[in-house]
Each structure stands twice: as structure tokens, then as C-alpha cells.
Amino acid sequence: MTQITIYHNPACGTSRNVLAMIRNSGEEPQVVEYLKTPPDRSTLVSLLTAMGVTARDVLRRKGTPYDELGLDDPKWTDDELIDLMLEHPVLINRPIVVTGLGTQLCRPSETVLDILPRPQQAAFTKEDGEVVIDEKGCRVV
Q1: Does the active-site annotation cover 106?
Q2: What is the pTM of this model?
């Protein structure tokens, strides 16, 4: 088994689908419920670096204080945005998955398939009824 970590919110359908696809590959990931156990600054910076994105690229707007804080304003530096994400973890978009093949914000959920080290073991249908993996374990396009 390889080590896979998912920064997960169990209340999020996309996050639940990604977790299920990881498990459908035969892996049991380390699940970090980041709203309960937020990453520290160095971990968050490492995740951003590994994904090759800026802090702004992983900001979540819906259901967060994004608008209230005025985060649309380009005045905010990456360091300031990271500080705000640490103060309000709900601002971190999810799920973020770390595997030996890469680190990815998995939106849409099937992008996790690009970084899983093992193939899907069975058919998989997302919670909304969309078929992602067929009965042969192959990705449906």
C-alpha cells in the first residue's frame, strides 16, 4: 500500500466521491478532516507548492467568509491569504489529495484518478448518479 492523504470534508459530496474512488482503488488513505484539524502554515504552503498553485487558486467562496472579507480584492498577498485560510479553514477548497504521483485539488472529483497509483477495482458511480468507472474498472469518458 502506498501512502495517500486526503484533506477531506465529510459534508462535501465531491470530497466523499474522491474518498470513495481512492478506496475503490484498494487503498485506505490517511483522512484529514481539515475543518477539525487544519493544516499548519508549513503544511499548507507545502501543499500549494506541490500543486504549483497560488493561495488564491485554492480559495473557496461558497459557504465561507470570502465575500465578507473582500477576498476578491487583488490587494491580498499569498501570505495574507494563507493567514486567512489558517484562521478560517473553510476557505480552503477541497478535497486536496496527496499521493506518490502528485498533489491535486480534486475538483471535479474524477481528477483524483490521474494521481492514484493503483487502478480502480470495480465500477464506480458518483453520488449524483454519474458513472465514472465501468464494470471493467475503466474510466468512462
Answers
A1: no
A2: 0.95
